[in-house]
Amino acid sequence: MICVSEEGKLVGNRCRTEFGCDVLSVSGSECCVLCQVLVFLPQGYPESVSSDYLAYQIWDTVQAFASSITGTLATQAVLKGVGVGDEASTVTAATVTWILKDGTGMLGRILFAWSKGLFADVLNDMAILMEILAPAFPACFTLIVCISGFFKCIVGVAGGATRAALTMHQARRDNMADVSAKDGSQETLVNLAGLFFSLLLIPLVADNLRLTYSLYGLFTALHLYANYRAVRSVCMETLNRARLRLVLRPFLQRGKVLGPALANPQEPLVPGFQQELRMKLGTPLHTVASR
């Protein structure tokens, strides 16, 4: 709790209430820190969220910042490709290109709702790279940006699905709405930081392809690494197919049950890179008796 005077000012250092509990009061710079906590962290933090909340949010912030920078590089390339600043280009051609780009993206949302994990992050970086390279291939520009938009919308579907599951995991006091809202506040802050950084960056990369490609490589590596660390920092306590395989295999072989702390680090992050667990439910009795 915080001691506040009748005028609404934060006062003192520490006082004791008539109920016998300590009441913390702050002033000056401590007030700024307190306001940041109230705005960007769920109410009741850290007791109201899972133990892996802070680690995940830190790495998620890093990856979001890196993705924001590479997204700016891609946007600049796409605008240049559709003819911004080129007197020979027409508004109609640019509009048609943008509509086709968005249309193929909508198709991607419908067809690829299954994508998840780091596969989606790799796909996002591939889409950004395609947009950066698109102006170098004017004859195929529309096709390239359409495929890129297709990939990005697949990423959006995967991100929405995984974010919902993660919010359920992080919320420990029936406070999903609060956790989700504070995540949105954190994301907005990161995007603002990325925006200001991009304003400083754009004049440097406007006509410098080598610097553009170098920055893309640097921030893409940071984006993938931060995503990897963020995913590995999460300790899910529920079972999906991959974690069920990890738990059942040692149980069936040695009678040992893996806890969440041991099972989560072993979960494959890319679909397809996992061993199949062969199980037969409802096996005929004569098959079992003959063994």
Q: How many β-strand stretches? A: 2
CATH class of the domain at 53-232: Mainly Alpha
Q: Could you give the order of the helices and strands?
A: EEHHHHHHHHHH
Which sheet architecture does the biggest sheet show?
Answer: 2 strands, antiparallel
Could you say what the CATH topology of the domain at 53-232 is called?
Growth Hormone, Chain: A
Count of helical stretches = 10
CATH architect. name of the domain at 53-232: Up-down Bundle
- Strand fraction band? under 5%
Instruction: Return the structural class.
Output: mainly alpha
User: Percent range for helical residues?
Assistant: 55-70%
Overall 3D shape: globular
Q: Span between N and C termini?
A: 67 Å
Order of strands across the biggest sheet? 1-2
Quaternary arrangement of the chains shown? single chain
What is the CA-atom radius of gyration, in angstroms? Answer: 25 Å
Average pLDDT reading: 77
* Low-pLDDT residue spans: 1-24
Domain Root UVB sensitive protein C-terminal: 256-290
Protein name: RUS family member 1
Subcellular location: Membrane
Organism: Podarcis muralis (Wall lizard)
